[in-house]
Amino acid sequence: MKPIPVAFHIGPLEVHTYGIGLAIAFWFGYRYFCYRLRKHGYDDSWFAVTFIEIVISAVIGARVVHILAHTRYYSHNPGQIIAIWNGGLSSYGGLLGGIPVGFLSAKKRCKNLKLSIAADLIAPVLVAAWAVGRLLGPQLMYSGGGKPTNAWYGMYYAGEVGKRLPVPIFQAIECTVVFLISLYVERLIAKRGGPIGIVACTATGLWGLSRYFDESVYLPHDNGTIGVEVAGLGMFFGGLLLAGMIMSKKKNLPPLSTSQSTLAANNPEISPTNDIDTELPKYPRGDPWGNKVSLVGTT
């Protein structure tokens, strides 16, 4: 299969397929997160401004981390530092730039949305958007392939000689699997009534593991490979550790109060927790991420 053109012209305007792919991935992430906010009982009107802030900070962070990871190349080619249309965005840099800004903006603009809940809501969105971005970004950019291969599934990429492993396609498949697992875990957690944080830990850990696998098996080794592998393993083990801590804390909670026990007995569709609030049902036994009904004064 011949390389897909990385750019085309509309009159005097040069349009890069890589940029179009990233724009579609960002748009998909925006729409899907708005849907999840509404589905779980939260207003989504505040997210438009936050989304713009996330996009800008994510692109800047992704570019900065990529340049730092490839200082040898950019020190000899300083003119390429701003050539973002040729590719060169770090996934970890995008997360480092976009996630803190998104959380700070959410805290300011949607005060009833706890950050722990926001993390569980956004984690599957990021994984799904990353899968879309792999297919419509690196798959269409200059030098987007992996290691050389003679396998039947090898593809040709602009700027690379010979057939290459179609790593962007592999990554899209991996992220789709992580996304589906995250939704399955979300369903299980919803039926249990919590705890909050497990969905984010699942998505983070599995995505980190997939990134480590990609760098160590599929992609050519360069001066940024080791850093990506270490970060991937760090996310995997960090997700496991944090999930274990959350589950342990959930098991060690004290018994329900009288008011909570009474409400749970009279409303079996609501899953009780030890908080002063109990969640309204949206899944079979309750949705820990949605609007809540206060138990204060309940008899």
Give the mean pLDDT. 79
Put simply, the count of helices is 9
Shape: globular
Number of strands: 4
Structure description:
It is a single chain. The protein has 299 residues and is mainly α. It has two domains: 10-252, no CATH class; 258-299, no CATH class. The protein has nine helices and four strands; from the N terminus they run ββαααααααααββ. It has helices at residues 17-39, 47-69, 71-76, 91-109, 115-136, 167-192, 198-218, 225-251, 258-266; strands at 7-10, 13-16, 277-279, 292-294. The strands form two sheets. A two-stranded antiparallel sheet has the order 1-2. The protein has a two-stranded antiparallel ribbon with strand order 3-4. A hairpin with a 2-residue loop joins strand 1 (7-10) and strand 2. The radius of gyration is 22 Å and the shape is globular. The termini are far apart. 40% of the residues are buried.
